[in-house]
Structures
1.
Amino acid sequence: MVDPKHIHEPPIDPLADTNPSMTVRKVPMDVVSDGSGWRRTVGLLSLIGAAILTLATTVLLLVPAPTPIALQPTALPPTVEGLVVEPTLLPTATLVLATPVPVIVPEGQPTISPDMVQALLQAAPQNLMVSDSLVVQRDNYNPFTFIRQDRPRSETIQYVATDGDTIYTIAERFKLTPETIGWSNNRRYTLVLRPGDVVNIPPVDGVYLQVVGTKTIAEWAAEYKVTDPYVVIDSEYNDLSGAQPTDVPPSGSYIFIPGGQGEDITWNPGVTVDSSGDTARQGFVTGFAPGDPGSCGNVQNPGGGAAWINPLPNGSYVRGFSNLHTGVDRAAAVGTGVRAANSGVVIFAGWNSWGYGNLIVLAHGPFLTLYGHLSSIAVGCGQNVPAGSIIGGVGSTGNSSGPHLHFEIRYGQSPQDPCATLPDVCF
């Protein structure tokens, strides 16, 4: 065996060939493919994967965590006091309520009695009246459907008058003007409305009438101060689609003229005078607008004096007496004192539903004086007041467009021209 220490490599000649002094044997390709190549590939991929994982981890650490979203509870369906309404479920859903909690309806809202609850849960559809303006209707899809009856109407309905009804109270109830009710019904209703009378109630202000004769649609519209006949023809409240202004509606049929205006109406609240017995000693028994809030009922009327005075000497004349205006209007500032035009007894003191607003009526034997639209009332029922005493203040209550005094003189139930008795009220 040769000792390695005795092996010497020949010195390198820099001018000689640069081949190494030891022979390096070339590795065949079949040796490279024995597995060493794929190991290098796997190692490279591992390094790449590690780099990607490190980068992703860094990004997750640097990005702030998302803010949690608070889920709001689903609102419960509307209920009424004493009644728990469970949500409508799909056929495949199951819901168990451990302890149902009733929802308290705010004060003033309609409630349902236990009998109504049982009726609502029956299979047959029903309509139940809860209040004057609310109906509970049950169907097979939604067992608690609330329908407001005060939604806009598209047709004229009929209302049966009851005790205490007047044209003004009915008009206020249905959000119409008193004139609309007057023009759309028997004119007697503007004078006397009796329990049981059937009153036409149009959907909006205008004139509802039964056409008679051979007038065309255009002529009917013009009669009630509507210049465009297509306002009538195209109205949703009439069945006149395709009609022409020159067409004549069938006699006896009904049409509605939206915004139409009829004649001026003189409103008469009604006066009762009982002159039976010894009137010279006992006087008259008089009442005004029975049933109204300010009515004093029948009051013994001892008569009045002969001296007449201007009830508002500081006012200014703005409107006189006519067949369509039963008194004299004198304007003045709100609160200006109104005086008794003659000595008499108070037979009405309070709110009047015929358009006078706050009203005072004094009886002077067979005569009456009326003081309308007042802002204040300083006398009471049955009180005897002397001529010239302050009984109230000028206002603009009731059917009024500005502060003024509406002053009337009546003999019994018949309005008289105040200018004939008190000329200075008309200047």
2.
Amino acid sequence: MATVGILGGTGPAGRGVAVRLGAAGHAVIIGSREPERARSVAATLTTASGLAVRGAGNEEAAAADVVVVATPWESTLATVRSLHEALAGKVVISMVNALAKDGREVVPLTLARGSVTAHVAAALPASRVVGAFHHLPAAQMEDLGSGLESDVLVVGDDAAARAVVSELVRAAPGLRPIDVGGTALAGAVEAFTAVCITVNIRHRAHAALRLTGLA
């Protein structure tokens, strides 16, 4: 089993991924700019789920075998650039969406490179960057008893790295990986997160993405 580090993992999205990957048997390190906060969140998750989740600074989380980026968009590039040496050669998963609130709706931001995944890949040329975990309802991810069943769209230019991420996802309870293809499609994948969040706000629901017709 791999060691998985989650940069900025103290937020709802990062906590949910930590729980699901921990339940799959991986050793999970929640990272933060504030190590004490990370340790507090990890202790809470361990108590609630019985999983061995550890908290640490982002630097320690970046030393893991596979690293997930779960920071707010505004701090994503500064965070990964500061850790580029530790992340070199590794599979790095960006689950970050560039979104803004507009009344009761959430809308995607237009980025110069088309997607957060592409920006992270440009900032980490020595890493194997893949986009995944974008459309998942955080509260249901964190609750292993929620009955969540969701697809996870996996995008990136490195096919072998996409396969590594797909295996991580496949082992996590309630999740199914769908290999979408290259980074050129990441913008469409990330933007659809705005639709998912807005639907859940409007309908007071916790709907998740599920594609039909696949073997």
